[in-house]
Design goal:
Number of strands: 2
Order of helices and strands: HHHEEHH
CATH class of the largest domain: Mainly Alpha
Helix content: 55-70%
Low-confidence stretches: none
Strand order of the largest sheet: 1-2
Number of domains: 2
Structural class: mainly alpha
Largest sheet: 2 strands, antiparallel
Mean pLDDT: 89
Length: 268
């Protein structure tokens, strides 16, 4: 049996509840479309937000790791160029020693050659110091948050006329001294090659590490996007649906509110 009441309008209350739910869903769809994010509040997806934040933190670490590796690579390239210059200087030492070692060179010529020989030795030490090669240096570059595997380590030996087979003590002022210098310089070339190999190996490792980290950044961002970002097509459809429901709900509420007035006809 139907019940008529002017005190409680159940139909209106039902319409209001449905309209409130529709407004909530419409507001959420509008928030997602305007922000571009599926998760704007923790309540939207608490578990998903925690995972997405973890991905975002990992991206921040990887980006800084790439910068760390690039900084280290720049320093290594400075050392690499200095080693190349030092290699050219050693070639000049070999030329001077060979020229002084021949019997056709007289003492005056050897004195001139020896002066340049000593100047080149001094230049080797100067360039090594300027490039940070004066002492052995260890490298530990933090690239990613994977424990020990996320750190690229290595070392570069010191370079000087002393460490390069002690060529600092040589001269070319006599034929015998020049002959001895030639042998020492040959060993110095090998010693310098070891240091160049250390620098080259580190450069290659850092370049590979940078490439991997950049790939990880892309993939991690993609994983975060699948959780955090809004599906625009889906949310646009939701907005349209809830907008229509909102309009129909308002119309239904207006009808429910006016329906109570019909009860007054019973009192006439």
């Amino acid at each position: 049996m139907a019940s008529f009441s002017v005190v409680s309008n159940i139909t209106s209350a039902t319409a209001q509840a449905n309209l409130q739910s529709t407004n909530f869903s419409l507001t959420r769809a509008l928030n997602r479309l305007s922000s571009g994010y599926r998760i704007n509040y923790s309540g939207d997806d608490a578990a998903g937000l925690a995972v997405a934040n973890g991905y975002r933190s990992e991206v921040a670490i990887l980006n800084q790791g790439v910068r760390n590796a690039n900084d280290a690579l720049s320093k290594l390239q400075i050392k690499d160029k200095a080693l190349d210059n030092i290699s050219n200087l050693i070639d000049r030492l070999a030329t001077l020693a060979t020229q002084a070692g021949t019997s056709t060179a007289d003492d005056t010529q050897r004195a001139t050659l020896n002066q340049e020989f000593q100047d080149v030795l001094a230049e080797i030490n100067r360039e090594a110091t300027v490039a940070g090669l004066g002492s052995a240096q260890g490298f530990s570059i933090f690239v990613s948050s994977n424990g020990a595997s996320g750190v690229v380590t290595g070392s570069v030996a010191a370079v000087s006329t002393t460490t390069l087979n002690s060529i600092a003590g040589h001269a070319v002022s006599t034929q015998a001294a020049a002959t001895s210098a030639v042998a020492a310089i040959s060993s110095a070339v090998a010693a310098l090659g070891v240091v160049q190999g250390q620098v080259g190996t580190l450069e290659n490792r850092l370049e590979f590490a940078i490439s991997l980290a950049r790939s990880q950044v892309v993939n991690t961002k993609a994983a975060e996007s699948r959780i955090r970002d809004a599906n625009v097509a889906e949310e646009a459809a939701n907005m349209t649906r809830f907008s229509i429901l909102n309009q129909s709900g308002i119309a239904a509420l207006a009808q429910a509110n006016s329906s109570s007035s019909s009860v007054l006809a019973l009192l006439q």
